[in-house]
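Weekly modeling sync, notes
Attendees: S.R. (lead), two postdocs, one rotation student

Agenda item 3: backlog of single-chain predictions. S.R. asked that every request posted to the team notebook include the full sequence so nobody has to chase files. The rotation student volunteered to paste the first one in as an example of the format we agreed on. Action items at the bottom.

Example entry:
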Amino acid sequence: MKTYLEIMNKGNDRTRLVLEQLLSLLYKEQAQEAPAANLSDLKDQSYLMGQDNQLLGKLSPGNDNDSILNKHGPYGSPYSLTSIFNRHSPYGSQYGAFSVNNPNCSTPPRLFIQGKMTGHVTVNHRLHHQIPTKTFFFLLEYEPELLLNNELSDDPTDLPAIVGDSYLLADDGQYLGKLTRNRNDSESVLNKTGPYGNPYSPTSIFNKFSEYGNGFSRLSPFNPYSKTPPRIFIDGELYGYLTENRITPIGRKISPRRLKEWVSGRF
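Predicted structure, as returned to the notebook:
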């Protein structure tokens, strides 16, 4: 007998929509039953919890029904309303009130390790004790022991180095985008509609009115007198500074006016 997922993969758009709705309802019922039965047993366990007190999965083996890694369970399925992997759920949507993917969310899921809260899993870089969503996903898949042993740095700016990304980071700790020539990547500094490449975004160096893009802010690469311009990280290591400052010896420098050309040629 074919599974729902097999039918969806081969069905037309209408069939997929109906089956996705059915799966969402089934997962929702399953998740509503699970917390009531298991929350009392979470005292010393590791898990993700929504700030509306919705369990979002345990950090346990993928064959556990309550595991966040179980792609067929209520917390790991991309079709479940209680999964951070569902781009349309309150916990995975770009606009969700409790989502790991909402850059403006002030109430993202909390990560508990052995019963103790260790941080917020979120793309909102303004929150304290932030665990970047992308870093969390990477560690879940490749280095889960770092999560389970609580070996994450207390400084959120150190976390992207675990993944080995190339990115810009403001002196105040604000993430300013990924250095990649893939303009379809929402985090790319070259994506003109993304939060880091859009000239109207408050977190874009290309916004002439933001503190990261105007010519007078100490955080801006366009301030020729700034001693604290954005830092450039390549593969998780400090490479230099993005700045128009040609006076102060602050190390290797890349002009922000050459950034697009530099990124396109290097990455």
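Discussion: group reviewed the output briefly. The radius of gyration is 21 Å.
Action items: rotation student to repeat for the remaining queue; S.R. to check formatting next week.
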